[in-house]
Amino acid sequence: MMNRLDKDFLWGGAMAANQCEGAHLEDGKGLSCMDILPSVQYGRKEAMYNPQLALTKKYGYYPSHEGIDFYHNYKEDIKLLAEMGIKAFRTSISWPRIFPNGDDKEPNELGLKFYDRLFEECRKYNIEPVVTLSHFDTPLNLSKKYGGWYNRKLVDFYLKYCKVVFKRYAEVVKYWISFNEINMITHIPFFGGGIILKDDDDVMQVSYQAAHHQLVASALATKLLRDISKNGKMGCMLAAGSYYPYSCNPKDVWAAVEKNQDMYFFIDVQARGGYPSYTKRLLKKKGVCIKIAAEDEVIFKKHKVDYIALSYYSSRLISVNKKVLKNIADGNAVTTLRNPYLEATPWGRQIDPIGLRITMNELYDRYQKPLFIVENGLGVSDKVDENGEIHDDYRISYVKEHIKAMKGAIADGIECLGYLVWGCIDLVSAGTGEMEKRYGFIYVDRDNEGNGTLKRIKKKSFWWYKKVIESNGEEL
């Protein structure tokens, strides 16, 4: 089977408001959960897993407050992306830029005007906006006042926000994503659900109940979009990466099955229209009992998403062997074993292009809905040489191999809407708050301490990706 891509395939890049915009209190914006997190050298890890501490402690530097100042440089940045030839740009709308406290009676018009200008700039260059509604930026007030997504009241606040932006941008935005990496809420509750846990809280109970509320909100947002927009498409999003069994020991194989089920049940609800049969067993094992309203099952069944968005950085590995379990690798907030067959980045992220093809096959076989790779990329430290150039052949190699794997999956018969490289312009890392962990084709002169001119420099990969897009993936 040929694996040539459709002429309308969406090549592009992806960013997130809280990691790039900055202007954290400008033009009426309220604080988001990410705005109280410092960079890694000031204690980001302790703050993200203990947000009660982050609420009271004063840290030295908050990277989201300025980001890469996309808020004031978006015209220059979109022009650069257009020069590279991208067809789609994924970003997020900052919820607290529209509703500063989350429970405000009226939206912030100045915040809406910023996105008016941003999407207008995208359309000026025929770039398709792909918009995430909630990307790790729950308004901080909703966390402090209501307990974040553990409180079902957030469903109504979220839908009010959705209604405003759907009505405003129905004619300019086709592709929407309800929640970024929805399964992350059970790994980092503060990121995913704005949840500030108390000492006596049952982490699993709170996280899975909050996840249920997000699933209800996603289904109702899907209904709302269809009521408002004729052409709008709603997607769900998974932090993807299939679990492999460490060995052919049946116990390892079963451990991998359970891990994958724990990941897929979120998407089962959004794409299949209900909790899968194994949910009761899975939740019972975790000691969790979700409160489900009488109408929720009907809501799920009626309002399924149009496509499956996914981020993919690596596969994962699991074993029941206690000795093997000591060999842990960085899995981006997801615990995984070190795979002896894979190389890893300096940040510990394992590199597995074939894993993308495997994951795509599993997802498509399971859901039979179009897939959309909305995040994939390599986070490493780049150096500017004496000529002011960045020769990032390692990034070219990484992206090239993943594109090959994606094309292989498409040859397998999988429908894929597009491929968006994460952090197409260098931005603040979500996990560490660093700038030195760079993903972009475009360098930003900013360091981990917030120093630098913010000058944008095209890397070698910029010109390579431009040729990839021009050739629709034929010239790698």
TrEMBL record:
It comes from the Bacteria. One of its GO terms (biological process) is carbohydrate catabolic process. Keywords: Glycosidase, Hydrolase. One of its GO terms (cellular component) is cytosol. PANTHER family: 6-PHOSPHO-BETA-GLUCOSIDASE, GLYCOSYL HYDROLASE. The keyword Hydrolase applies. Its EC number is 3.2.1.86. Signal peptide: none annotated. GO terms for molecular function: 6-phospho-beta-glucosidase activity. Belongs to the glycosyl hydrolase 1 family. Gene3D superfamilies: Glycosidases (3.20.20.80). This is 6-phospho-beta-glucosidase. Pfam families: Glyco_hydro_1. InterPro entries: GH, GH_1_N_CS, Glyco_hydro_1, Glyco_hydro_1_AS. The active site is at E375.
